[in-house]
Please model this.
Amino acid sequence: MSRLKIATTWLDGCSGCHMSFLDIDERLLELSDKIELVYSPLVDMKTIPEGIDLALIEGAVSSEADKNELLKLRANSKILISFGDCAVTANVPGMRNHFSVNDTLSRAYVENSDSGKCLPSVSVPKLIEFARPVHEYVLVDFFLPGCPPPADVIFSTLCELLEGKTPSPITKTRFGA
Amino acid sequence: MRYPSFLQRTADRADVQPVRVLTFSINGVTVSAREDETILTVARQNGISIPTLCHLDGLSERGACRLCIVEIKGSPKLSPACVTLPRQDMEIITHSDRVMDYRRKILELLFTERNHVCSVCVSNGHCDLQALTVELGMTHVHYDYLHPQQMVDASHERFSVDHNRCVLCQRCVRVCDEIEGAHTWDVMGRGHLAKVITDLNEPWGESTTCTGCGKCVQVCPTGALSEKGKSVAEMTKKRLFLPYLKLMRGEEER
Amino acid sequence: MTIEELQEIGKIEKEKQDGFKHRIHVCVAAGCLSCQSGQVKEALEKEVSRRGQESWTSVKGVGCLGLCTAGPMVAIEPDGILYQGVSVSDASDILEALGGPAVSRLDCSAHMPFFTKQKKIVLENCGKIDPESIEDYIAEGGYEGLYNALRIMTPTGVIEQISKGGLRGRGGAGFPTGLKWTAVSKTKSNIKFVVCNADEGDPGAFMDRSVLESDPHRVLEGMAIAGFAVGANYGFIYVRAEYPLAVKRVRTAIARAERLGVLGRNIFNTTFNFDITVRLGAGAFVCGEETALIASIEGRRGSPRPRPPFPSELGLWGYPTLINNVETFANVPPIIRKGGDWFAATGTDKSKGTKVFALAGRVNNTGLIEAPMGTKLREIVFDIGGGILEGRKFKAVQTGGPSGGCIPEQFLDMSMDYESLAKVGSIMGSGGLIVMDETSCMVDVAKFFIEFCMSESCGKCVPCRVGTVQIYNVLKRITEGKGKPTDIGLLEELCDLVKNTSLCGLGQTAPNPVLSTLNYFMDEYRAHIDDKVCPAGTCHFNHTEESQ
Model:
């Protein structure tokens, strides 16, 4: 049996959900026989491959780059999971939503900056007006809330998917923690 | 003149006789209760958990959050269990797909209304709203978030109010009025612009009526009212005082 | 006060009026007053005295003559001439023409179907009597009903007549008035209240205001009869503070009625006492909901509470309370005077009597009308209303205000009664009737009404407080050309939620304008969403903004 092709990404998030993923610890070895990480910040792959079985999306959609990456992942994946509170609710990145993009950027790059004091024009992706949850852009198959989702829940969800079952993570995790 | 507050004393109701005992069914199980007990009370006595938010034992009922709506056979309308009194032979269904679906949607609406960021909230892990998402199996919010700009009032020496987390359940208003007797809290504004205020919308710290008892903080279901100095997930609420106080006062009146 | 004294007052007033060869009636209701009918009346009075005609020409301010669009209105009695758009400078011409042919440039006869197609019970005295004169009201048979009730009938007998007449609540839901009265009369309590709901707040509706401004005593009499029937001695009129003229006239009326002894202690020398107090509402739509209204009268925040218990059991300050609308009370005196059978002769099987409508929108004759229940919608729009402005094409009628729905062209021949309106997804409501033509965008109409409900929601229950905002946001983006294909389903879902789970009538009916326009005008929604086009041409899309 071929291994399940998994892609993960972090959009506007803190990477904490990925850290929680790694907190599966020694069970990762168990998983490694069954899954293949084809695209992830944890592996060195620059382009999104085709034929992904499962995509885990961490983080809210905040910039054009986030949006493009998400759309591509959705197009290339059979199952897409909204992974962690930022992806599910926009969470902390969404807290900028009642300020304008310009105000948010000036706060970070001008008011609270010691050097430079100018808004970024190159190499920083353009912010969208609002940071939004993943499901506002693409169809999401499963929601895995939590900030971060506990490692056990990530593990059991993956196991259930591997066994062909329908996971229901909300009974084991919740918004916030 | 002290106006009769709704349903504080069901005995005031002309159509209700507290001594009469009724039999009716909840989810197909026959139960019996006094005529002045609400469906919610009877359900809980019989081990059936109906989700609630504005309800709190010891305070008057408002019937406002609509999470406790139940189906009553033969009635097209859904009834809030916290204020509906049973009738003889009534058939009540508490967890039909229809009401569960409505409850989840109402809860979603609550999450869209203000900025409930559980992960950075003082009440994370001790929050009635957060617990409801688990109870009702709410995986995500499929309505648009409104992202309103809300204020924080930290002018009080010991407490603060964060309107981002307020669900307008008015537990604070009721406990302050009905138990403490100060009536510092009330509501101003209409619709989604409504907000809880202290005195005549003056900073809490400058309130001349607030006794600083902190009952409002303890009954608040979310992180809207909290003690100062508490960080994320540190704000636990102590609510046992409420049944004790009610009991003691009942003894006194007798 | 005895019946002889009452009749004597009426007789003297009648004789006084008949003594004038010409009687000039100037409309002094709010609509005409706002276009200077007060000055017109003064000018006419001056002109009469300049010509020395005081002994045989009277000038009297009267209540609403109905055709508000053509104000200021002046009627010449007994010739039955009606003038429209009268200005101060017309005074001399009007007096010159007395007794002869009408002044042709002011003549209003072109609008005749507007008047002939109507049948007036509630408005029978509007435009006839001076609203500030109790004698004038008595001359038209006023307070006879109250006398009959107190001296000849029993409380049960009064309720029987109301039930026999088949009167139903005119405030919106159409609950049988007789049943409501029976419920209050059967509840045991030493103290009971009668409340008149004059918190009319539907956009475009002014029936209750006109009745209070034009014939306030009729409402007082209706309330006193109701008080006798249900055993209440106190009445409250809860009226919007935005109706200063109505408030003033009602207060004047109460003072005069008390002085004559038809209100207050020992009315008509019986043991029955009835006092009426005016309470001003601060302009909250939700206070038209009876439990919110009660809270507001008690001095608390005007928000509703769940029913049961109904106000008939637990009302004002916990006492049994009867709440009826202005128009309902206004129907009571004639029913008692002429009997329930007389009243039941008008209208349809289940909807008896007449209904007052505030006709507004894109029709030629906007104003206050009264037609028998069961009148065809077409007659109201095209005969009484005089058709659509500038000959444009009729599109829909919105009835029942923010709680009602839009009725499209295919139902123009429907009968206007409670059941038929409910069948097509609208309600009778309090009687607002807004006509729309091809230049009205139905998505925009739905947005307007939901915006109204959103800002008038009290904020107590979650579905109404937040759900209306969500519905509004979706409609707003559709009218801005940013609608998504999934928005139709989302609207239907939100409407269903708000309708079925809200606490009070405001929330439960708030989605109706959206649901009815979705039902009948789906093509317009589709055009906005799919083609980014507004068929009526009222929504302006900014195509440069990218929708995601």
